[in-house]
Specification:
Blueprint: H1 2-6, H2 20-27, H3 43-53, E1 72-73, E2 81-85, E3 92-100, E4 104-109, E5 117-122, E6 126-131, E7 134-135, E8 138-139
Antiparallel strand pairs: 1-6, 2-3, 2-6, 3-4, 4-5, 7-8
Helix pairs in contact: 2-3
Length: about 140
């Protein structure tokens, strides 16, 4: 969580220029790094970057719902990866849980208002809380 929280305030650059830090988030995922911009959805790229910095395996995917099969499902807790539905059945959003109540889950995440920020999402959109699981002696 300290890694994610230190990124608060990283913001997309309007216009044709791109925020280098967001491009760095995208490089933590698979795919063509030359094709990415800060205009592409980057919530999952942010979570991948944080996990890599923490020495943990990530999904290496730019798709938010890729986190639904990562690690293990857990009860709500501080720092858990929170995966939400959004739009079409393949779309989603992902970030790190920092608080919750009966109606909302607050997460620190990327691409929230075009920045790394803390935002509350309805619990009705929550698909899963995930936590690293030990796999072959490594954390995944």
């Amino acid at each position: 969580m300290p890694i994610a929280l230190r990124e608060l305030g990283v913001t997309e650059t309007p216009g044709p220029e791109h925020t280098l830090r967001i491009l760095e988030y995208h490089r933590a995922t698979d795919g063509d790094a030359d094709e990415v911009t800060d205009e592409l959805p980057w919530c999952s790229s942010f979570v991948c970057w944080v996990m890599t910095r923490a020495g943990l395996l990530s999904t290496r995917s730019k798709a938010a719902r890729s986190w639904l099969v990562w690690g293990a499902a857990v009860e709500p807790q501080y720092g858990a990866v929170a995966v939400f539905s959004r739009g079409q059945s393949w779309q989603g959003h992902v970030g790190f849980c920092i608080d919750l109540d009966s109606a909302r889950v607050w997460i620190v995440g990327g691409n929230q208002g075009n920045s790394v920020s803390v935002v509350a999402y309805p619990r009705g959109r929550l698909l899963s809380f995930r936590w690293p699981a030990a796999v072959g002696g490594q954390i995944a």
